[in-house]
Amino acid sequence: MTIKVENGDMCPMLGKTCIGLQCAWFTKVAGTNPQTGKDIEDWGCAVAWLPILAIENSQSTRMSGAAVESFRNEMVKRMDMPVITEPARIPDVDIKNLLDS
Questions:
Q1: Within 10 A of 45 (CB to CB), how many other CB atoms are there?
Q2: Read out DSSP for 38-65?
Q3: CA 26 to chain centre
Q4: CB-CB neighbours of 35 under 10 Å
């Protein structure tokens, strides 16, 4: 037995059929579906878009965390490098002999 899942057009806020463009929450979303990688450019209820937007937000958060961790690891590596505490000294130069030349 196979069940075909289809979107309904019942608005849970109004308790009746979706009024489409008359509703302030009917929104156009353009971008990439985070689950399939396919481009999206479609109109729909903002409440219905929330699961896809939450998945996209989670992916972005994970990528940001990975970038911060990579930056931290690079900084730790650089902190392990030796630090020269005393500046290099120029040897004493006899200015008088340089001017006579």
A1: 18
A2: -EEEEEEEHHHHHHHHHHHHHHHHHHHH
A3: 26
A4: 11
> Residue written as tokens 């120029």?
90
pLDDT digits (tens, 9 = 90+) for 75-86: 988 887 777 777
Radius of gyration of the chain (CA): 32
Predicted structure pTM score: 0.60
pLDDT computed for residue 80 by the predictor: 78
The half-sphere exposure of 22 on its side-chain side, counting CA atoms within 13 A, is: 5
Residue 92 has pLDDT above 90, yes or no: no
User: What pLDDT was estimated at residue 100?
Assistant: 63
Considering only the C-alpha atoms of the chain, give the largest distance between any 2 of them, rounded to a whole number of Å: 106
Q: What residues form DSSP beta bridges with 83?
A: none
Residue pair 40/25 in contact (Cβ under 8 Å)? The answer is no
